[in-house]
């Protein structure tokens, strides 16, 4: 993992010839991105003996390559997969590459994630879409938001990190060619060494200083047949330290003089602090201070106790006499939320995300099928509870955080402490689970506000599991209605889908960036409007229903529940048409060969279910990747058991097959937890679930065998961290229908 301490800048200023820069700009991107991503606003920090060849790559005298790491490692494998991109183009073994936390710089901003947020159908290849993508990439490049999310790490890095490696390699070759007085085209590289047929050779470490001033004539990225490293199953580089306990997560940092803080926040959504009696706990062991951080943190109202140990802080906050103003949401309940969603669907047309053909043809139907589906709020419940360590001293802020948004975290900390961003230092640790929860910065603003009252001491703020689950930013509750018309031959001649939910993006724009939320939000309807099935006449719309419940991006976001809605209804249509669900899908994918190949691969591998079991299938595309899952399910005494899941995925070029298989397994388990158990309910404005006793996750003995099939592809890589989640709930629900004849249209899936 990256060092906890960023290296000091050396006095050497690295230089890169204009020809090398312009060459790098034109490789593999066409019109995108609007500006280069190779050279940062400041030279890459170096220590004695290191030479920076661009903003991403530096080389030490012994030939060790250091790569800037702009993404957070939260179990998804980016600390292994991203260095592979540089190592491939630089022609060095992965063992020669180390990583260091990237500084806050716009070249490390995530462009792909923002471009993917545009609400266009995957089959749309028109000029309007291309123009919108170009404009969005331009804006994203200027914003330079360093974000790990949207299953975009490999997709976004595929261009710039390979370019960084290829450019550094060309510069090293150029330096060798100049020293040896030979054409650069005659030089070869392998394992960190440049060589020539005349017998001369030099290591990258020996050439790095001269390479700084090299001006390569052309930069060429490798083609897939030339790959030596990409596509091979490399072991995870973070596994050993996580096994032996030396890996540093947010709760593991121990700066000198560390004290701890436990928090209590308003139990009612939107409530505020009434009063507390600080003197009542002043004599308790270890207690140092009580802080009301409500105003400074700018988020949920709450109070913290600072103490010498977390145990002391947590005991003291539990004993603190503390009362609350309930605020405007004191009567809010889950029933109220779904009542509002129903009313919105009854009264509003919503925003049309996709429409094709002539919906009026549905009036000629021989049969009409209607269905309504619903999904609950969900918490993230990452195993590492929310935490952040902050120190405010001498006009500077130091943060140690397991965050998915380093650049946003720095900005938030600077705002609370009222300092400029360059006065904030951030050390990103490993994340003990993110799933979108650590895209938020509430833990950062709290920690800074509390640290401002700690007289310069670093303060580690840790939320209890109860505070974590009851003060999450939740996946939205959602309601969806379907109407489909079939002719006498069982052909679907009309398909209408309208859903309602709150908007995550509207809330995030206001909560994180202080911007007004408005307009369509792709995450509300993704997985509905962008399905591949070739219905001639479609209309898909969504109604945004504002809610006081805080909403956040949850692993696979709208796809997580919308796939359940659509893929369950597809099975309903197959039944109405008198066709096998797999055959029905195949007939609707005649112009989608990649989807059909994924579906067939999963079905073929699954074979036949065991005695007393049934198969359910679901096919879904999200974050650019196509996934089909076949779940083998049994039902006993009203309990649903998932024994095996066959998962086929087409994610473009498989950079590291090991990681892809791990992500599919992780996604299945994560998705099953939600499908079978996940539900957040509200009563009296309070979240009713508060720990794993009433918000359970899948246990080890419940985890199914997962067989993963990776479809070979020469397409550019797409997302992999989230696409395995959406198909699992409908696959299980469809299997349950085969076993019981009961169509479960509400999550979590319950027979009793």
TrEMBL record:
<dbReference type="InterPro" id="IPR000674">
    <property type="entry name" value="Ald_Oxase/Xan_DH_a/b"/>
</dbReference>
<dbReference type="InterPro" id="IPR008274">
    <property type="entry name" value="AldOxase/xan_DH_MoCoBD1"/>
</dbReference>
<dbReference type="InterPro" id="IPR012368">
    <property type="entry name" value="OxRdtase_Mopterin-bd_su_IorB"/>
</dbReference>
<dbReference type="InterPro" id="IPR052516">
    <property type="entry name" value="N-heterocyclic_Hydroxylase"/>
</dbReference>
<dbReference type="InterPro" id="IPR006311">
    <property type="entry name" value="TAT_signal"/>
</dbReference>
<dbReference type="InterPro" id="IPR037165">
    <property type="entry name" value="AldOxase/xan_DH_Mopterin-bd_sf"/>
</dbReference>
<dbReference type="Pfam" id="PF02738">
    <property type="entry name" value="MoCoBD_1"/>
</dbReference>
<protein>
    <submittedName>
        <fullName>Xanthine dehydrogenase family protein molybdopterin-binding subunit</fullName>
    </submittedName>
</protein>
<dbReference type="Pfam" id="PF20256">
    <property type="entry name" value="MoCoBD_2"/>
</dbReference>
<dbReference type="InterPro" id="IPR046867">
    <property type="entry name" value="AldOxase/xan_DH_MoCoBD2"/>
</dbReference>
<feature type="domain" description="Aldehyde oxidase/xanthine dehydrogenase a/b hammerhead">
    <location>
        <begin position="244"/>
        <end position="328"/>
    </location>
</feature>
